[in-house]
Structures are given as structure tokens and as C-alpha cells.
Target: UDP-galactose transporter 2
Amino acid sequence: MEKTESEKKSPVSDVGAWAMNVISSVGIIMANKQLMSSSGFGFGFATTLTGFHFAFTALVGMVSNATGLSASKHVPLWELLWFSIVANVSIAAMNFSLMLNSVGFYQISKLNMIPVVCVLEWIIHSKHYCKEVKASVMVVVIGVGICTVTDVKVNAKGFICACTAVFSTSLQQISIGSLQKKYSVGSFELLSKTAPIQAISLLIFGPFVDYFLSGKFISTYKMTYGAIFCILLSCALAVFCNISQYLCIGRFSATSFQVLGHMKTVCVLTLGWLLFDSEMTFKNIAGMAIAIVGMVIYSWAVDVEKQRNAKSTPHGKNSMTEDEIKLLKEGVEHIDLKDVELGDTKP
Model:
């Protein structure tokens, strides 16, 4: 059943979408940490694992479409292929960036996604931001930077990979919202169309990317029941993570997704301290506090901007399209002019 606009934009469902994204994202990071760490199961094939994620997501989408739980609207194949290429480049470039750069520079490159997304939305969608939004973005970037950035080392190859990762990831996230609006498709509908393409390509090329990164093929890995359980858990969480990402960007914007998405960084650091005995310093705590303040300010700033826009256009649209004017003229030509007071047709 088609949802109304109010149902799509209700505050409860908005909070639910963000909560699903934060919980599933943090959960998948915890599961992957257990799966891929040397103290866990040592499954060092991140790109292939992402292929498993999309294969599982594609399977859920196929079952949903087959049972009639979701509808399938037409999106041109070339758009889906283009989007999948950008998304896969983002995944591979992120993995290469993490391998070639220090953790500090990797975190800095991820922070740069917020201004890059803002610039791309300005170029592609002519979107402008008020000074309050810009200030809050800077506060978030500074806060996350303080609590995550440590050693910063960079080299030419790593710098190129980081730039590619930031640009492709930003473009992919903007494209999610654009495709949903352009073809009037829901978040799950779009995901179910792109997931099979990404799954096939990542499962074909992923093992070679992982071999370049780790020097091992996945065929040499000895599976255990514990590793299989972690992979299945990671895939299940990935379905919710992917759906909520498309849902959040479709409801809000890529910029909001990036800014408020850093709440996941705060949660990961906190859970790492609680569950994995990670070090929690005053620098981490101060950075997280600043980031949270920035997110609160950002939410307030976006609300202020919406109120300003509403005041500037209090009566809705102030102009008509050519088609609307044409229809109005045609309607007037076919209506008898009447005296409003007497109700008589004028000669």
C-alpha cells in the first residue's frame, strides 16, 4: 500500500530509521571485528565479505518481490550499472585507503566526506546551506577528529586512494537520494535492484582485491562454525544497515546522513571500550562530547533553516508552470461566466 507523505515524514518513523542505521551499523562493526581480528577468527577478506552482504540483501529483495511484500518499479539499467560501479569503487578504494594510509589519515579522509558531500550537492542540486548549518558541521568534524585521529602519515598512492574513496562514496550517497526522487522508488525497491549487480561484481572481483590487500585467497581460509556464524550474523545486520542507509538518505539528505552518522563513531568507540577493553582517554571523551554537541546544533540548524524556508513561501508555490497555465486557460474557455451574487448566466 502506498504511504502518504505524512507517514513517510513522521517524526517517529524518522527516529526509527536513524535508530535502525545506528544499531545495525554498530552491530556489524562489532561482528566484523570478531570475525576479522587476529584475536577472533582472522577472516581478512573485507571486499569479499561485502559481496556476501549484498548477495544476502539481494536474496531478501527477491523473496520480498516474489511474495508481493514489495513492488518493483522501473529504473533504467544503465543508471543501476553506473550507480553500482560508483558504489563498488567506493568499497574498494576505502579498503585500499585503510591499507596504504595510517589510521589517522584514514579517519581524516572520512571526515572530509561531509564538506565534499556539501560541495557536490551544491554543484549537482544547487543546494545552499545557512551559516548555522555550516558552523555545526565544523563542530562535528572537529569533535570526531579529536576523538579518532592519532598518527597521520600519508604517501602518494594512499592519498590517491583516499581521494577516490571520498569522492566515490560522497557521489554514491547523493545518488541514492537522487534516484529515489527521480524514479519515485522506495529505499528497499532501489536497494533490491542495485544489490544483485553489486553482489555479482564484488564476488567476482572481490577475492582478487583481497588477495592484493592480504596476499591470500579466500580459498585458503579454513572455515569454522564460529566464523560461519559471524559471517551470517554480519550478512543479516548488513541487510538492515543497507536498507536504513537508503531510507535515511531518501528521507533526509546525504549531508545529514554523514553528520548524524558520526553518532556511530561515538557508539563504536564506547562499545570498544566496554566490550574489547579499548583505551578511552580524556582526548576521546572530549572529542565525543564536542561531536555530540555539534550533532545537536546541526539538528537545530536544519530545523531553523526549514522554518525560514516555510516563512519565505507561506502559501506554497508562488508560480505556475506552463502546463498549469495552459490547463487554467482551457478551463476558463469552457466555463460560462456567471454573476457571483445573482447566479445568472451573463449574456
Q: What stands out?
A: The chain has a mean pLDDT of 76. The two ends are 50 Å apart (CA to CA).
